[in-house]
Known about the structure:
Blueprint: E1 2-6, H1 11-22, E2 26-31, E3 45-48, H2 54-63, E4 68-71, H3 78-83, H4 85-106, E5 110-116, H5 141-157, E6 163-169, E7 171-173, H6 176-179, H7 191-199, E8 206-209, E9 221-222, E10 224-226, H8 227-240, E11 246-251, E12 257-258, H9 259-270, E13 276-279, E14 288-289, H10 294-300, H11 309-322
Parallel strand pairs: 1-2, 1-4, 2-3, 4-5, 5-6, 6-11, 7-10, 8-13, 9-14
Antiparallel strand pairs: 9-12
Helix pairs in contact: 1-8, 2-4, 4-5, 7-9, 7-11, 9-11
Amino acid sequence: MRVLICGGAGYIGSNMTAMLNVEGHEPVVFDNLSTGHRAAVGHAKFVKGDLADYELLVTTFKKYDIEAVMHFAAFIEVGESVQAPLKYYRNNLCSTQNLLSAMEAAGVEKFVFSSSAAVYGIPESAHGGITEDCPTEPINPYGQTKLAVERMCHYQSQTEKLRYASLRYFNACGAGNNAALGEDHRSESHLIPLTIQAAMGKRSEIKIYGTDYQTPDGTCIRDYIHIDDLCRAHLLVLNKLDQSRELLYNLGNGKGFSVKEVIETVKRVSGKDFKVVAADRRPGDAPILTSDATRARNELGWKTEKPELEEMVSSAWQWHNEYPDGYPD
Length: 329
């Protein structure tokens, strides 16, 4: 299948592009390289462009005879979304509306959307796995824009011009494609790469925001999913869209790991010690956020093949040592 990968030069997009290639599909990467890296794309077909460019999108659909779209081109920093909400609404919502309009004009129906567990906000029962039926009450502009796109897709699907899947990620991590493609965010905010940077001596310390939560070790627990497992779910859902007009799935490991567990795992995998500092809680942090991905398992036949934290951290450690300064571009 010929698939346009919007944001295909980013972390998840580049891993998805590589997996599509391996599985015999024909990915075309569409990226403005504002946060992505040309070196992560490899030899895949590449179009440098912005999702706000309607004419370029329509031209690209027709030139490459695109059959489906996977959309990873969102801004993802929660804190930044609070400081610059209009930036997030412009890119995450308005540009996605432009993309869907271009798809409609070109007659492209299949759409796989990279959504987020941020649409749930802070569930009342944070100690249980979050299901797709939990209330959606996002607490920041990032989560709000993801939910708004889901609703836009829902209404567009009612016109019978769109078949879409919304995939609500928990915490994607690790390096995929045999540890060849890792996280290279030039403004990093994710715990595993931040902790690896501390182990590599590139960061003076790692902070734990809150050590007095009602969890076994007092630190927050989050659900981490290996990037390879995440991408495999996209392949499965792409095929299922032949029979379905609307799909919605949580994608997570189904169990959580605490901040202290992540830090200790990085120390064990790296063989390095580094400074760890206890800091005050951050507003809005729930004690426990984990997924219930039963629906994806039952309907897609999907399961996590790399569920252990050590394997996730090991692949990330391998990639960061191969590319200590990130991708060469």
